[in-house]
Recover the amino acids of this structure.
């Protein structure tokens, strides 16, 4: 039985003037021990989906099970086996990290001694040992986020929901968080991770579900999705217009599809598989042919590309709509 | 991975943490443990109250006790919970295996422990500095009932605000009500000294009712029954409404 199933989840928010369908029929499935990346722009419904699966809110329609428990009827049992961590660090500022972890341990019905022990273990794992006895008010954003994640793990959950775990972190913080997440995955935890960044879904997820306007619009591995979008591309700006013909030949040979020329900028774009290796090959071949180039780049599909391909509009437009 | 259900222990741990947090915030200590005794001392020793039968402290001590309960339930609990909700802590607590009722029980337990401390402080001030002694009509049972119903009413109001309003709004409203109750809640000024319409309003508010209930418990008031009834109505209404409208984030 899959660790997470969701069928036709609907959630409608009503305020005085309007009605928003935050979720409009979300279907999901996550196998045990795997990572699902739920990818979409702001307002797509990622957080709402996670909230429903983590039993914080109830769907207006549809069903979902997590670890075999129904999220509405068996919510109480479900809570002992899941952990939730989001981009708002949900820890008490006036307590120290150690005290926070002790409290959460007790909430998960560990004994006092076990709570303390588990807390110390997590403090070590998340590199919070030194700051463990200072109040959280004094922590940096990255530290609070780590404590938040540690708190989610206190009960050794089989299943973890991570809601935009690296949004707002600096690059080093992000890489650090990815390392932690990879360790969790190695230990066999099932993970549902939401993110705005295709790169992050790429790095961490076994399968990706793309969500927009409250619906899952595409599903697959990272390669499958990128394939739908046309995969990676190499762009070359040729210095001399007279070299264009020969450059086109080289790209036709080395690339994996039809090249496209922008006459005005002398930019040739060709689909390419093989990443950096292919890039090097093309650079070498262009060099051997004596063709001078102004610029060359390997372009990977971004969330925008995926969205453009799947929905006909950029992810940014969607976010603006949602904010309006 | 099943554990024997012991939400009581979990709730106790949460209550302990809540008290720890309260002790660490200066403004909480100020409003719950310093202001009520200060009000008691100030008005008892400066003779600013309108003249009436009996000593000022006999009127003021029950009033200060009511103020203490308001501080603990409405101000302290209300504001702390409001910010917990704003910061997502409440969401995490709500998503833990502790059932919702356990969470509320933990918070109420923390408020009750705080109130016991407040009562001790006030009694020490009254007995030690103001020469107060319990009169023959004192009823410990009535005292406890007054405290419990008062806690229900004011903690109920505190949680009602915290679960519904923005944190800043709860902060402003709780503090505003605290001040308002101090003035027209029969705490330092008897409500029959208020102008007509205000006195009528004051007489149905939970603050004056609680102060009256404490007066009855300490042997200087008369109408315990209607005071307790008013408190009970407020308490059940606030609690009922809070249950219906509480948002965990």
């Amino acid at each position: 039985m899959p660790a997470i199933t969701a069928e036709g989840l609907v959630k409608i928010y009503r305020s005085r003037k309007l009605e928003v369908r935050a979720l409009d029929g979300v279907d999901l499935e996550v196998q045990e021990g795997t990572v699902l990346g739920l990818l979409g722009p702001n307002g797509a419904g990622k957080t709402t989906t996670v909230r429903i699966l983590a039993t914080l809110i109830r769907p207006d329609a549809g069903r979902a099970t997590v670890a075999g428990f129904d999220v509405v009827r068996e919510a109480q049992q479900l809570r002992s086996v899941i952990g939730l961590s989001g981009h708002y660090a949900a820890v008490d500022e006036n307590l120290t990290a150690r005290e926070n972890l002790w409290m959460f341990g007790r909430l998960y019905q560990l004994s006092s001694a076990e709570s303390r022990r588990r807390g110390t273990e997590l403090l070590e794992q998340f590199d919070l040992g030194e700051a463990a006895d200072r109040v959280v008010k004094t922590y940096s954003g990255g530290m609070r986020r780590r404590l938040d994640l540690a708190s989610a793990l206190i009960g050794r959950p089989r299943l973890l929901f991570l809601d935009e775990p690296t949004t707002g972190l600096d690059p080093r913080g992000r890489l650090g968080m990815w390392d932690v997440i990879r360790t969790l995955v190695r230990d066999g935890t099932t993970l549902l991770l939401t993110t705005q960044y295709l790169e992050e879904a790429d790095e961490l997820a076994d399968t990706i579900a793309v969500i927009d306007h409250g619906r899952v619009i595409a599903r697959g591995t990272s390669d499958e999705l990128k394939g739908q979008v046309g995969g990676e591309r190499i762009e070359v700006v040729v210095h001399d217009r007279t070299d264009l013909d020969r450059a086109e030949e080289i790209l036709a040979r080395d690339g994996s599809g039809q090249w496209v020329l922008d006459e005005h900028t002398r930019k040739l774009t060709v689909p390419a598989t093989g990443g950096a290796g292919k890039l090097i090959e093309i650079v070498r071949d262009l060099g051997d042919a004596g063709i001078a180039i102004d610029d060359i780049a390997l372009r990977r599909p971004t969330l925008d590309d995926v969205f453009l391909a799947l929905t006909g509009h950029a992810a940014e437009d969607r976010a603006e709509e949602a904010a309006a | 991975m099943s554990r024997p259900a012991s939400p009581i222990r979990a709730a106790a741990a949460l209550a302990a943490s809540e008290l720890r947090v309260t002790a660490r915030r200066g403004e909480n200590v100020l409003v719950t443990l310093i202001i009520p005794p200060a009000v008691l001392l100030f008005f008892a020793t400066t003779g600013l109250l309108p003249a009436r039968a009996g000593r000022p402290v006999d009127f003021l001590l029950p009033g200060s006790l009511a103020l203490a309960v308001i501080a603990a339930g409405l101000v302290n609990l209300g504001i702390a919970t409001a910010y917990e909700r704003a910061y997502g802590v409440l969401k995490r607590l709500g998503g833990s295996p502790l059932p919702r009722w356990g969470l509320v029980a933990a918070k109420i337990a923390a408020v009750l422990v705080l109130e016991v401390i407040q009562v001790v402080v006030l009694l020490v001030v009254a007995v030690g500095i103001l020469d107060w002694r319990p009169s023959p009509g004192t009823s410990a049972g009535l005292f406890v009932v007054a405290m419990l119903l008062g806690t229900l009413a004011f903690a109920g109001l505190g949680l009602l605000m915290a679960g519904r309003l923005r944190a800043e709004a709860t902060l402003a409203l709780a503090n505003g009500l605290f001040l308002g109750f101090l003035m027209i809640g029969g705490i330092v000024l008897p409500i029959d000294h208020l102008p007509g319409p205000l006195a009528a309003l004051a007489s149905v508010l939970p603050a004056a009712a609680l102060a009256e209930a404490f007066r009855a418990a300490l042997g200087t008031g008369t109408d315990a029954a209607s005071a307790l009834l008013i408190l009970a109505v407020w308490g059940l209404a606030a609690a009922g409404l809070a249950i219906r409208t509480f948002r965990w984030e």
Q: What stands out?
A: The interface with chain A takes residues 1-7, 9-10, 13-14, 17, 20-21, 24-25, 84, 87-89, 91-99, 248-249 of chain B (CB under 8 Å). The first helix of chain B runs from residue 7 to 24.
